[in-house]
Amino acid sequence: MVEKISKYTLWAGMGISILVLLLFFAVGYDRPFEENPKFTDPMLTDLLLIWTYFLVFAAIVVTIWSLIHGATTKGTGTMKETGLVARCGTIAWGICICSLICGAILGFICKDESMLINGKDWNDPFDIIITDMSLVSIFVLLIVTICATIYSMVGKK
Q1: Angstrom distance (rounded) from CA 50 to CA 3
Q2: What is the distance, to the nearest Å, from the Cα of residue 115 to the centroid of all Cα atoms in its chain?
Q3: Mean pLDDT per 10-residue section of the chain, whose length is 157 residues
Q4: pTM over 0.90
Q5: Burial class (CB in 10 A: 0-12, 13-18, 19+), 66
């Protein structure tokens, strides 16, 4: 039953994400920006941002719930009976600690130089570092996800 809920949630999230992206690019994407017509001002940017904020918020809630659940239950049964369930708390904490370490390292590595955005100087170092750190994290996680997917398709069944 839990696997069916997980599968339906995955397919629903992917379907909504694809629909939001299709609407973003198909409806009013080429609308010119009022202050500088060289730039575009997509009509459904708010929809894309709200969906992205929802996904980030849901990921944070699920991560915190998983950490608490993994730390309090510590799995039940033997490894033969449950597979990875007995180590889920350790795995969750390991992922959390590694993420914090990677975030700290990327925070120190990322540059805080001013940028030219929509014809205006942007020189708030905090915003620039957070944006740079987020973009690098997205690319790293994308590569890790692709490798994990390939390994799960090719690896032992």
Answers
A1: 28
A2: 24
A3: 79 90 88 80 89 91 81 59 58 75 76 71 77 78 81 69
A4: no
A5: middle
